[in-house]
Amino acid sequence: MSMKWTSALLLIQLSYYLSSGSCGKVLVWPTEFSHWMNIKTILDELVQRGHEVTVLAYSTSILPDPNNPSPLKFEICPTSLTETEFEDSVTQLVKRWSDIRKDTFWPHFLHVQEMMWTYGDMIRKFCKDVVSNKKLMKKLQESRFDVVLADAISPCGELLAELLKIPFVYSLRFSPGYALEKHGGGFLFPPSYVPVSMSELRDQMTFLERVQNMIYMVYFDLWFQVWDIKNWDQFYSKVLGRPTTLFEIMAKAEIWLIRNYWDFQFPHPLLPNVEFVGGLHCKPAKPLPKEMEEFVQSSGDNGVVVFSLGSMVSNMSEERANVIASALAKIPQKILPLRLYRFIPMNNFAKIPSILGHPKTRAFITHGGANGIYEAIYHGVPMVGVPLFADQPDNIAHMKAKGAAVRLDFDTMSSTDLLNALKTVINDPLYKENAMKLSRIHHDQPVKPLDRAVFWIEFVMRHKGAKHLRVAAHDLTWFQYHSLDVIGFLLACVATVIFIITKCLFCVWKFVRTGKKGKRD
Amino acid sequence: MSMKWTSALLLIQLSYYLSSGSCGKVLVWPTEFSHWMNIKTILDELVQRGHEVTVLAYSTSILPDPNNPSPLKFEICPTSLTETEFEDSVTQLVKRWSDIRKDTFWPHFLHVQEMMWTYGDMIRKFCKDVVSNKKLMKKLQESRFDVVLADAISPCGELLAELLKIPFVYSLRFSPGYALEKHGGGFLFPPSYVPVSMSELRDQMTFLERVQNMIYMVYFDLWFQVWDIKNWDQFYSKVLGRPTTLFEIMAKAEIWLIRNYWDFQFPHPLLPNVEFVGGLHCKPAKPLPKEMEEFVQSSGDNGVVVFSLGSMVSNMSEERANVIASALAKIPQKILPLRLYRFIPMNNFAKIPSILGHPKTRAFITHGGANGIYEAIYHGVPMVGVPLFADQPDNIAHMKAKGAAVRLDFDTMSSTDLLNALKTVINDPLYKENAMKLSRIHHDQPVKPLDRAVFWIEFVMRHKGAKHLRVAAHDLTWFQYHSLDVIGFLLACVATVIFIITKCLFCVWKFVRTGKKGKRD
């Protein structure tokens, strides 16, 4: 009885929220690949709730494809780069990042920075094309959008919001060294218990690991720059007609929707305007196509292993392919490889969910992309991780720390290594148990990640912002933020007092001495 | 259509949460007065959802009164103190705190510390009575509770949880200087933009205010001790039979339910296991009793002003009472004073909500208790704050900073001051607007505060804890936490390298010089 009553009350409350926000207009500055797939889940939900969603794509966009049938509106901005050129350069970047995985620390991150800058230069070019397109900007102005939704990893969304004088919300997976989160969002990452992103460390660190983490932090804070900041700052200052910086504009974000949660991420401090909405793209498993279901059923009690190494497969050497094939041939489970048409991991993205949610799935061999790992968490499937680049090694390190995955090195693993890893995650019940624990944590949240993401976007539209969640840290310079001026002032005060006291004592001593001397004379 | 569909889905999800947690057993270590009233709202809701709630009261408890008809179970522990003695000593404490309000910084906080210690000594005595009562402890053991719910401001709940080997959840309004939050909970409060509690500062501080805040922080970190820590540590070590500290046991809390939210508090960093559930006791206004409704209606367009100064009224001098009365006589609004039977502010607590929610209420004259302020926020009523002690000055400073209140000084205000303050909050539309803004923020949350509080208590019962939300900071010593060992080590490394290089250069120089000398010879 009381349950029903409470449910009814909650329904009323939720209906109020759902109905009270009259439908709004959302402008989207998208990113490609897995980023787009993830943000698209939010956009589809926004459309479902009656909002008008306009995606600002450049004419060479690959995934935000206006030709695909979709309830989303597209606003296309022409650029000089052709689609093939754009795709080729992105392919090159991804391939290069995957190639440099054997580099040691310093050259590795130098290369990562170089690639981020190349990618950033391309985005800046597109951004310039948009903001200098007077006709387009006039149209956007006239459309009177309520909010801009942007991926923080691709700058420009915040500039558009600033030009259109509307609030904006970020979606973000992570940035190398948490640079954007720190400098743009004001997040805090104490190095003693928060491993720097891409460090592959866990939250419980030994002394030497903490030393390593500190070196990472110093490196990322002082040397590494996600973007070619100087150029971005100049560009933003020029467009806005006043001296400003990229981070200053980023810091105006109303809400940060981080595509992570505490089933995946190690707990760390957060801010009131940060929501962890990892796994918002996950959905309950749908029935498999008949042919596939028959294949899965034919595996009997042994079940199946889902195999998807994303982008790496197409570039794999024959030797590596043989190592994998020979291990897979030796396990009693059937293998469900996901076909790959192009390098883009997202081509198989849509297929993973249903297969991972099948009760006969015993393990998931994965390259460690965040979206795929969230599918495994959602369905409670233990993993064998063979990470290659970007956040993949870090993702697998997290799953390993939480006892839900075994990690292998793609370049050095032998057939036996892979076989043993598979046997371990399938036969040691602890791995399944830990994966199920993560799954239970993921499913047991007061509000589902997707609903939370949409709630806060709608909140920003309803209230024209969410300034009450914004820490005052954003109004301070870096030395004010670290209280260096205050500490300096207080030390100066103490020094002055000590100086005056010493001076006085010295004077008294001198006076006394002179007095004594005088007496003696 | 899509709205309905979404609502239905959300209902299913919520019903799942509500029904999936089979009913659990909650043990409560309560605190008195407003603290009890607040936690009782949670307990009533837990009972409504089918949980068994047992309150561990000492025989002298004032508000957690087992003689009141209630669906709560009471477990009474006898103590040597009589009820009158207990009440008298608490009355004395509250009176004393209110008396020292005119003290300057240093003596004021010395007195506050002295009072906290006196109160703490009393709590420790009760705690000793409980844990040394073998019969009671055996009964509690056998009852197999799922979770302990305790107010962090009254230690002992965490000790009971440790002895019973069950998880525990804290409810907390605040602690002086955020000592418990910092040392027990691992919260972060950067002094550059988070004003220390009881400092009456706002989040946007001038340079001198930041200096002041830093001095507050240093004072609270190095001098002020909320509790007589040495005695508590000894007591806990003795009871648990191993060297431990109060803060070490407090740090095991699964969830901290902070009785605050960003409509009231200035945004600051938080942790994944912290929920801000301020205002969970607020409910929509019920119709007033007939007599009172007639009185309110007779006010016409001018409306009424609600007047409740909590504990201070009974101790008020005639002169102060006259100042207030003469101001109230001059406004066109009718006055609704809340009668006070005893010093306990909570006697009128239950009456405030309905009156503040009345459409004819124009303003609220308040002493600034957190519960009352939340009622005003909930209903969007501007305030005139006349704070006296504890968090009251800070609370009013927050409301003033958010533009919803005018602050007066109880001891120095004149009749004209009060009159002008009332006129300002009633006639300047900005105050009502700001109060309504806070109200809108308060009402527009994905899940209501009370539901969130209950959700996380149920979560802890369902999963036997919430360790995935606990930062690894708790496993570090203070110097590890601040990375002092790592910084020391790295500086030593740098020094060694510099030393070796200098030494080598010196050797080379010496060698070269000797060579030259040899040649010359």
From TrEMBL, chains A, B:
It is a single-pass membrane protein. GO terms for cellular component: endoplasmic reticulum membrane. Pfam families: UDPGT. The keyword Transferase applies. Its main location: endoplasmic reticulum. Residues 1-24 form the signal peptide. One of its GO terms (molecular function) is glucuronosyltransferase activity. It is found in: Endoplasmic reticulum membrane. Its EC number is 2.4.1.17. It comes from the Eukaryota. InterPro entries: UDP-glycosyltransferase, UDP_glucos_trans. Keywords: Endoplasmic reticulum, Glycoprotein, Glycosyltransferase, Membrane, Signal, Transferase, Transmembrane, Transmembrane helix. The chain crosses the membrane at residues 486-512. Belongs to the UDP-glycosyltransferase family. PANTHER family: EG:EG0003.4 PROTEIN-RELATED, UDP-GLUCURONOSYLTRANSFERASE 2B4. This is glucuronosyltransferase. It comes from Papio anubis.
